[in-house]
Structures are given as structure tokens and as C-alpha cells.
Amino acid sequence: NAGVTQTPKFQVLKTGQSMTLQCAQDMNHEYMSWYRQDPGMGLRLIHYSVGAGITDQGEVPNGYNVSRSTTEDFPLRLLSAAPSQTSVYFCASRPGQSPYGYTFGSGTRLTVV
Amino acid sequence: DQQVKQNSPSLSVQEGRISILNCDYTNSMFDYFLWYKKYPAEGPTFLISISSIKDKNEDGRFTVFLNKSAKHLSLHIVPSQPGDSAVYFCAAIRASYDKVIFGPGTSLSVIP
Q1: Would the CB atoms of A105 and B104 count as touching at under 8 Å?
Q2: How far apart are CA A110 and CA A97, in angstroms?
Q3: When you count CB atoms within 10 A of the terminal residue's CB, does the N or C end of chain B come out lower?
């Protein structure tokens, strides 16, 4: 089925380790974003992209990097993991300035110990 | 500064009754408002939206009302069903911008 695919679904990291959360969509959507969900905080925007080669920061970008070399893929890199980055991460995409918002992936649950 | 607020973290409703979820916003420049539904261990899914030029939008059991003067919107679910038990996120978009801003969510429990 078409949609947004996130890998891995679960990950445990040690403080200081780096890793990349993968996100791919097959709907030819222009816009892609990364959110993190924390209790009581809702979904907070980390980084977003409006097309291949274009990225920008969201509300909570520190400690994360992104790149968008293709329309389909939007990986999120944690440079040096910290316990404060323990969260559930969601990747989402939407077709340009659609009023109908995002299609979300199923999430990656990350624990940093 | 939270631009989209959902002041009720949780809500319990009897099956068959009406569920009313509330959302307030601070930015009068938002063009669209959306509601998302999220089950545990799944990503949020789009439920219903409303343009800022409308005051009501209906889709089956779900109706969203917008009061622009009060910067307030609400989602009504009638009748409520146990399968509606989930976290509901209110979100807002400015058409000229690229960001979707989410509220903190309200956890709805529909009791059989």
C-alpha cells in the first residue's frame, strides 16, 4: 500500500551514539516533515522539507540533521544521542500546500540510555 | 509559546452520547484547522478539516465548529462509539507557510 514507511520501529541507543531514522514515501509528495511526540507536548516539528534539496528547521531542531536528496526519502540524523531525545518520532508527508495535512508513518520509538 | 492549545488532556464519555473536544488557537492568520486521531503504536490519521472561512464542516458522525472571533474550534462526535477511543490532535495551517502546528492532544475514552 502507498504511504509513509519509517524504519526502524524501535531503537535503543547509548548516550553519545549517532544514528539515522529512515523515512520514505511513495506518493510523490512535495512536503515532508519530522515530528517528535512527548507526553503532554503533542507533536513538535523538528525539521521539514518543501522539496528535494530544500530543508528548514522547525520548533525543536537542535541535535538533529536532515537532508532531502530525493523526493521520496527524508532521513533524520541524530548526531550525538542524549536522554532528552528519548521520544516517538513520526515522519509525515503531504502534497504541497494541501489543506488536508499530513499522511503519517507509524513511528519510531527511540530510547536513549 | 503554544499557538494551538487543547486544555483538556482527557475526556470520558458513555457510548452513544456526544463527545465534544475543544481547541483554542492564538494566531488569527491560520487558514485551515484539522483534527487527527491517533491510536496507540500507530501514526496519527487525518479525520476532518475546516477552512477559516467556514463555521461548520460535517462528515458522518464528526462535525467541526469554528468560532473565529473566539479563536476556538470544537470537534463533535455523535454518537460516540468505543472505537472512537483514541488521542485527538487539533492542528492548524497557514496556507502561505509550510508548517502544520499541532496541539498537545486530548485522550478520549468511550465507555461501553
Answers
A1: no
A2: 30
A3: N
Give exposure, B18-44, as e/b (b: 16+ Cβ within 10 Å).
ebbbbbbbeeeebebbbbbbbeeeebb
Q: Give the closest of B51, B96, B104 to A41, CB-based.
A: B104
Residues of B in contact with A102 (CB under 8 A): 44, 46, 100
Cross-chain residue pair B98–A92, CB shorter than 8 Å = no
Of A43, A94, A97, the CB nearest to B102: A43
Q: Measure the CA–CA gap between B28 and B35, rounded to whole angstroms.
A: 18
Convert chain B into a string of H (helix), E (strand) and C (coil): CCCEECCCCEEEEECCCCEEEEEEECCCCCCEEEEEEECCCCCCEEEEEEECCCCEEEECCEEEEEECCCCEEEEEECCCCHHHCEEEEEEEECCCCCCEEECCCEEEEEEC
**A83: helix, strand or coil:** helix
**Cell numbers 520514505 label which residue?**
A24
Query: Contact B89/A42, CB-based, under 8 Å?
Result: yes
Chain-chain contact of B36 with A106 (C-beta, under 8 angstroms) = no
pLDDT digits (tens, 9 = 90+) for A2-45: 799 999 999 999 999 999 999 999 999 999 999 999 987 889 99
B4 contact residues in A (CB cutoff 8 A): 42
